[in-house]
Design goal:
Distance between the termini: 37 Å
Shape: globular
Oligomer: single chain
CATH superfamily: Alpha carbonic anhydrase
Structural class: alpha+beta
């Protein structure tokens, strides 16, 4: 999920043009399993046996980076993992998009967090959490002064950051196979979208936007075609 080569100018271009900019970005224009998508609740496949999403996070030193198109936290040492279907995926980084990239029943929310993990076989698994305006998010509150002070295209060490402070909001989730939402739009990404929409303050979202582009533009890719993909939904047995 190395996105450092993506420039702000390239991000600002029409999303439909991404696939024409570089040969290695062709999936952005011609891929069949792209993200984000709209999740229609009545169309999902309910699978109670899909399994609980197990996470085992721990505090680790982290870097805060302003990539020009988003704000990212990258853990420099082992910060833990998630386990899905017996496979372990190591936590590497998280970042935010405003407004949300995924939508529920046609509705986009005010913010979306992507928590990125990688397996030993270089498979990418992303957990996404959507937010609406309301009470401040605790995890962002602890990073707020760092985000407010970071410069353009800057990165800085921010000490120990505990990913366990990220609230998932429940055990119910949606699962589908998609792609990275920025170039090179690599497919085969395992997406887990938490069903519960959490809250974030307007001030927190404003800080994320202002840090990268003075709050004037969005950094969310448009909804992509489902192209026959099935969206699975996990809910615990009652």
């Amino acid at each position: 999920m190395n996105l450092y080569s993506v420039t702000m100018r390239e991000m600002e271009m029409d999303h439909k043009e991404w696939g024409k900019l570089k040969p290695e970005w062709k999936s952005c224009g011609k891929g069949k399993y792209q993200s984000p998508i709209n999740i229609v609740e009545e169309d999902v496949q309910v699978l109670p046996n899909l399994g609980k999403l197990t996470r085992d996070y721990n505090p680790a030193p982290a870097i805060l980076k302003n990539r020009g198109h988003d704000i990212l936290i990258r853990w420099e040492k082992d910060a833990g993992k998630i386990t899905m279907n017996g496979t372990k995926y190591k936590l590497s980084q998280c970042h935010w998009h405003a407004p949300s990239e995924h939508s529920f029943n046609g509705k986009r929310y005010d913010l979306e967090m992507h928590i990125v993990h990688t397996s030993n076989h270089n498979e990418t698994a992303v957990v996404a959490i959507l937010y609406k305006f309301g009470r401040p998010d605790r995890f962002l509150s602890r990073l707020f002064h760092h985000i407010k002070s970071i410069g353009k295209k800057e990165e800085k060490e921010i000490g120990m950051v505990n990913p366990g402070d990220i609230k998932f909001g429940g055990r119910k989730y949606y699962r589908y196979i998609g792609s990275l939402t920025v170039p090179p739009c690599t497919e085969g990404v395992i997406w887990t979208i938490q069903k519960k929409v959490r809250t974030v303050s307007r001030e927190q979202v404003r800080a994320l936007k202002t840090a990268i582009h003075d709050g004037l533009k969005k950094n969310a890719r448009p909804i992509q075609a489902l192209d026959g993909r099935r969206i699975q939904f996990y809910t615990p047995h009652k």
